[in-house]
Design a protein that fits this description.
357 residues; 18 strands; 26% helix; homotetramer; 5-stranded antiparallel β-sheet; alpha+beta; 7 helices
Chain lengths: 357, 357, 357, 357
């Protein structure tokens, strides 16, 4: 069962609500003997942290992570690693409106329908704040697979795409959009700012690429590497679509246009692929090519325009979502996508090692 | 762990290779007291069965399912239901070429890299033949959630889309493409036949809709209804992309265009939604609207055009895949998509009932 | 996978070392709408707490539990409940001896062999301190199955048994041994005190009985109620044996002596059993009779008598375990046994409800 | 979830009823490249097979196993191995009595209470026939851990124990009781035959020892090697108690009598233990000593003496169980205990390899 857990051998369980005292994660099954301190995790949290530019929510959270177990004298011990971040900016705002009326597009109505009650403060458990723990756990997963290099970036905001010809990995950290194309980044400043000022929001597409994954990770059927990635990405708040390799474009092509021919590699051992339409996965198992996926984030549901809705009694009403919201959740979703990729890959590496030695 | 199993409470484990003596599935956790016989399963298998038109593989398999356990006097007993289909048409063709050289786009190279060996006859475990057992298991899952109506259909072949204005559910069973638009079906006859004659292949997009899902199924985070659906769909052979609701289109819109406003329903109890961009899922939990998803199938990798590849010794060679292949695997994937939707929903219903009573 | 997790639908993950900053547990899958506060958990922790009599370790831990998530306005929300206890009495004693030499009977050597390193302070992860979190989680499980009454007690210390004829449930809370026989309790004062003064230790047998379990909980084979109980009890530190019902005595009898005849019950509905050799479980499923088990705790391995051992370099040495140890771990194991019984039963109730409605 | 599955990485799912067409198992996660044919499994099934002496049931089942998948050219492929045994001796006897009245000590009443119906023919799913598949799966597990030698034997029947001083492993295969003490075997001939002739039955204790298990298999808490073993053994039909190492005897001793002192081993590398009260497991992890356990089987519940019971309508009646029953199920339970030990150890080896490399 996996209500709030993720992974098979490297298993992450997260807990916590947006406005409770803290949020946390337990990372179980981590290999022993890895050098680990808070300093290995904090930089990734800082990437995701709110309040760093006007293009993300103005909530001010230091997101300072503490390791409470599983590390001794600077090394992982193989026992569960407990991570905790205290919630600091729990502004005691008035939640009476959200408590009463359902915000369309949010989990409000569905939670009430399921559980009969919900913690409505700041979205409670359904808050994107939970993704901080994914990023923290992902930082540990990276240490498990040091041979893998991960690169996630925003490829598209509100339908405006980067130009692949201008792709520059070094650019990603230089703008507030995780954008690898400096010209797109410039356009997005205007685009996102306009949405922000209008109290509107925009969707985004995030791409992630993992280099250094050897051939052989994954499993034939239900724990396929691509199936695990799809589940992992779709479990991130606001995600509505996942593609591996060419994704939906592959569905529009032919067997010839979609082929990834192979030839002997220069080292005589690892073969070379002449294309990577498959996104590095065939039959659920990695091929040694870069593993690539694309993730669609819907626009933030919280907008200033009043939307028709009902209250808990079923009466018609309207709601405008005031507050400190991301005009484009996909931006801060980028480190989360990267973390989920790291978690899936580390887990699959361990499963592969367990079965195949 | 879930190499070859799927689901939490309603758990399906499949086994078997394309050219072994049989394929099968064990469905564990099924509620007791459901009326079940082979006659409840066979019609769904017949939909997926090969050799029924020139648009699918000419392999001739009766795909006759047997129930070997878990049913007594016509009712499920709550114990595991073992399903088996004997492989009949194991044409003793010459596999020496496939045994030696890797077919690009197939699982050949990845399997060898992972396991050091593979059953190369007809794709072995990676054959689409495995999906017959998903369809069989899905037929049982349908009995667990009789309140739900499932409709899957092909929405697009090789980039040629149906016209939503001509959508007619009754049409789906009347053509060999599971196509709800009679005009598109006519066009596809030519399109697919041309690909078939040219030894080429085409991709497709399958859509699936579940009506009658009550609000409240699913779970907040890693067992989100959409995450489970994404993993389930991506685990089907040849699938490269999954969308829930508007999917990637949502990523191109604004918070306003993506809103699903609510108002009191006519019965005063269930609310009415004015749109369904979310595909019936918010925060990982069903909202009571139809649950919708779209699934991208790549073109069959087996084509007559020679493709550059290597053999097991790493030497350069070429391969043309002769044999009886589907010119468009997405077509026969349609009942598989429907079956996976049934399996996910039945499982989530049981998990919801277990937790929330 | 379940390195540090327990349960299927009601799933508990514990973390923390004896001398780290804190220990904790995440209880996932708890039904929503249960009234829960720290006050529902603390009394059970107080039962297990060290330092309450001279018959248990003198470590002084307030074991004050905090609920960090999953409860809103006094009710469980259905989301993960995070529990934490800060470690207070981490006496900065000298661990250099334990760090170097392996204490026979402890996990020292096995941990080093497995992980290549270990947190040796106070036993680290293998400390009985972890069981505090089982007791805390068990307190929540009790709320899930309010119809069940649990009674655990010590039945035997160092081979000295209670007299079943003098069994008085009310007596259990009145002595420091959880002993239901006041005369045995008196004898044990001397027995345990002598062991304590001699720096020795004693084993114990704990019995637990659950009344109010309806017929039908459990599963036919690998999730049998008795199999789950056996695994749960054997996972407690220092436990070496588990019996259901008559246990090993059943192995010494005949089919006639072991029969549990049935007859119509007085209410005409629930049958009456004339004996309960089976311990309330047949074929892995509860019968409606009290569920009973017996658990064997070995004597604490920490004794003052020097024992031959080796150090990390493999050199012969001797070790005497000074410090604040329980002369009989079975005593404080009693609330832990009760908690594990509660966890197994609550989990099985939910699994039963999920499958059978 | 694990209603009918067992194990984490090496995962066995069994299916089938005593009087259905067949029984079977799917072994998932098996390492690739192991030489495997039916000939590796059949000898173990033959040990367990009924009808081989007058001391076991006279049901005549050839128990001929077939491998239906997962093996190619004599080697495991890493994909699921499907095993099946057809039921041959489904004597069409009259089950009307068992269909109506509950046999005390059997699963009859509990199954009906849980599921509302049951397959009553020959015990259905609760038949000891299911254990044939454990033995078959165990034969595969042995191939995963060739370094381990397993020895199971009956140590006690109806309270009559073997003399450890006369233990001779070679003797086990020479008598129909898996008895390592030739004199006990002689006594048991009379003992069991008397029970058989009287229509009575006897309990038994089976011991199992695994040599060659290296230090380091297992996990700290809930997947402890001893917890997994306890669950595995208790899941076998008719088992009521499990002990690891000294078990309940440890509960009657002192820290001194229970110590397992260590000293440097002759090879300078692996330490030597001067005793093995712990049964080769400390802190849930193997120590390198032989892993030992003891398992209590209750007497067969099927006896000729009429026992008071009720029928499905709740009316008082009596039942005598005629038919072909084992006078002592513990005897044929011996290969099952050995198989479960093999399955647990192989699974733990793979989990250890997955986490620790």
């Amino acid at each position: 069962m996996s209500y709030n857990s993720f992974g098979h051998m490297l298993r992450v369980t997260t807990w916590g609500e947006s406005h409770g005292p803290a949020i946390g994660a337990v990372v179980d099954g981590c290999p022993p003997g890895l050098a680990l301190s808070e300093g290995d995790i904090q930089p990734f949290l800082d990437q995701r942290r709110p309040g760093q530019s006007k293009f993300t929510t103005q909530r001010q959270e230091p997101d300072r992570v503490r390791i409470l177990s599983g590390v001794f004298e600077g090394q992982t011990t193989g026992t569960p690693i407990s991570l905790m971040i205290e919630n600091v900016d729990q502004r005691s705002k008035d939640y009476s409106e959200v408590a009463k009326a359902y915000r369309p597009g949010h989990a409000d109505y569905a939670y009430d329908a399921k559980y009969g009650l919900r913690d409505y403060r700041g979205g409670g458990r359904s808050s994107a704040r939970e993704t901080a723990m994914r990023v923290a756990a992902g930082a540990i997963a990276r240490l498990v697979i040091p041979q893998v290099t991960l690169t996630a970036y925003v490829a598209e905001i509100g339908g405006d795409r980067i130009d692949p010809a201008r792709f520059d990995a070094g650019e990603i950290a230089r703008n507030p959009f995780f954008c690898p194309d400096p010209e797109a980044a410039k356009r997005w400043e205007t685009l996102v700012d306009e949405a922000r000022l209008a109290g509107s929001s925009l969707g985004a597409v995030v791409e992630c690429r993992a280099e250094g994954v050897p051939a052989g990770w994954g499993a034939p059927l239900y724990a396929k590497l691509d199936a695990e990635l799809a589940g992992a990405m779709m479990s991130i708040n606001a995600v509505k679509g996942v593609e591996i390799g060419d994704g939906f474009d592959a569905a529009r092509g032919t067997g010839e246009s979609n082929a990834d021919p192979m030839r002997p590699g220069p080292d005589g051992d690892t073969p070379e692929f002449l294309a990577n339409h498959a996104g590095g996965i065939a039959g659920g198992i990695s091929t040694g090519q870069p593993v690539t996926c694309r993730v669609a984030f819907k626009p933030t549901s919280s907008i200033l325009t009043p939307v028709e809705t009902i209250d808990r009694e079923g009466t018609a009403t309207q709601i405008r979502t005031k507050g400190r919201h991301d005009p484009c959740v996909g931006i801060r979703g980028t480190p989360v996508v990267e973390a989920m990729m790291a978690l899936v890959l580390a887990d699959q590496m361990m499963m592969h090692r367990g079965q195949c030695g």
